[in-house]
Design brief:
By secondary structure, this protein is α+β, with helices and mostly antiparallel strands. The protein is built from 3 helices and 6 strands; from the N terminus they run αααββββββ.
């Protein structure tokens, strides 16, 4: 133990620290505090979740083999529906983003962009003027109201092609 204290004093001296013999103490001289054991109470939400899980286990144990098979089939069907819904939501989010971009693109070319009022979006088949286009693209029509050059409002439709890389307006002229 004296060797450790001596080594500590040498290291502190070499690093340029001023030391006092009273400052150097053995590890056993340091005060020790005992932390009281803390009891963590489960929250009501955790208790309810545990109760539900226990009830589900009891319910499944009470089922016959045929009922268990039917239950498994229901879970598989539900999982498939959830996967389809997630896929549908992801696709709709992409379409919605394209619709917003198309509206902004259309407004930028207007005399009075503040007069723009969207009426509706229409999904068309993937044919433009009788020519089938790739399934990677989708064709949408935006019906809108906007102020014309004379101050009156017109209802118009603009066709857009939504692709992987963005939105392209389509003019039939």
């Amino acid at each position: 133990m004296k060797a450790t204290l001596l080594l500590t004093a040498i290291l502190l001296t070499l690093t340029g620290c001023d030391i006092d013999k009273d400052q150097i103490r053995r590890k056993s001289d340091l005060p020790t505090t005992v932390m009281p054991a803390t009891i963590v109470e489960k929250s009501a939400e955790e208790k309810n979740a545990q109760r539900r899980a226990d009830a589900e286990v009891k319910r499944l144990d009470a089922l016959t083999p045929a009922q268990r098979k039917a239950e498994a089939a229901k879970k598989i069907a539900q999982t498939k529906r959830d996967a389809e819904l997630n896929s549908y939501n992801a696709m709709n989010a992409k379409v919605r983003d394209n619709q917003i971009m198309a509206e902004m693109l259309l407004q930028r070319g207007m005399r009075d962009p503040d007069s723009f009022k969207k009426v509706s979006w229409t999904k068309y088949t993937n044919k433009l003027d009788g020519v089938k286009i790739s399934m990677v693209f989708s064709v949408w029509g935006l019906t809108y109201r906007a102020k014309n050059g004379f101050g009156g409002y017109n209802v118009e439709e603009q066709i857009f092609i939504f692709g992987e890389n963005g939105v392209v307006p389509y003019n039939r002229r």
